[in-house]
Amino acid sequence: MPDADALITAAVAAVRGTDVRDAERKLDRLVVGSAPAQADDDGGRDVPAGPAAVDAALLRRLVAAVHRLWPRGWQPADVARIVARRLGARPGRLVVDALAADRAAQPGPVPQWWDDQLTALDARVRWDDDAGWLGGWATREGTDRIAALRDAVEVLALLAGLPPVAVLRPPPGGVGAVTVTGAPGPSGSRVLDRVRALLAKAESTTFPAEAEAFTGKAQELIARHSLERALVESTAAHPDQPGGVRISTDAPYAGAKALLVQEVAAANRCESVWSDDLGFATVLGFPADLEAVELLHTSLLVQATAAMLRGRRERRGGGRRTKAYDEAFLHAFASRIGERLRAATDAADRQAARDTGADRLLPVLAARSGAVRERMDTLFPGVTRARLTVRDAEGWQSGTSAADRASLAGSAPPSRPLTGRR
Fold it and tell me: How is the chain split into domains, by residue range?
């Protein structure tokens, strides 16, 4: 009979199609949870599906849809981000409920990083039974059943069309997956705590030179910590292997944000690939370096945005916002900050070579760089390079000054190469 699943299948297919009127008709059927009665094989009449059955079936379908994405490279944070990016904040919150239900249905323990992503999304089962799930969600959102059904169907349609992405870490139950949870091993957390404190000071100060000093000191600590880890891991029985993280590069100024990711990644011995269509950059590297990239990027994006707003107020003609100025400012900020971060890393490398011996350190660093490059070539064999063009000289000069007050002379705005997936 045309049960709840059949109604949902018809609605999703219609939403993915091009006939707007047909999509509306299929969604209307879901609202009342019924379908036209049809004769079954015994000559009887079908029983319409009720709203509770539709709601429970929707949750099952959403859980199945997200679960199919895990072997295709997607992670919980990725799914929540792409839904919010393409459909809006409310559908983004709806899919978080599906992620929570998927986690509850896992037959065994999952990797700690998986639960960490769900915790960051506040993914929790907040309902007692699946038939009441959608109503509870609509109440929490302050919306009605019609809007909730539409959101759920649109999320299903989007999930069904997502392409595979690079598998950065095995999902729960996958080959090579870690199936135990527990406290992570030692990772230099005291160093990272000091880095976080320095970056918090950099974000809070209104003096650019002070912010640069704090950020530079943070990069020095990160670089020394990375070298220490590299030397320890070089003699470990089970050394670290290159992994990856995804960092959002949503509009506005997605290209400038991707450039900032790339500059921070390069300064920390990582590779970055920008997937513009999916709204993220993938950073590949060793675990300690990836954590450093995430910390620095988050802080520098805050600093860059604050500096851009100050620059906009100070620019000739007042605080009028122009896209060209803002983009040029953020491009210049990313480029100059990248130079400063790499300088700090190079200084740490030279000091470490003097302390431990270049003949010991350099082969370790070369091996790690080779491993990261091999990982990139495996995951992104078709990667290309694109150029981001800067069109506002004043914005470029202001952004450079904001990143490095000691260098006040302006330079012509160049175009910047950016590694991206097309």
Answer: 4-160, 189-420
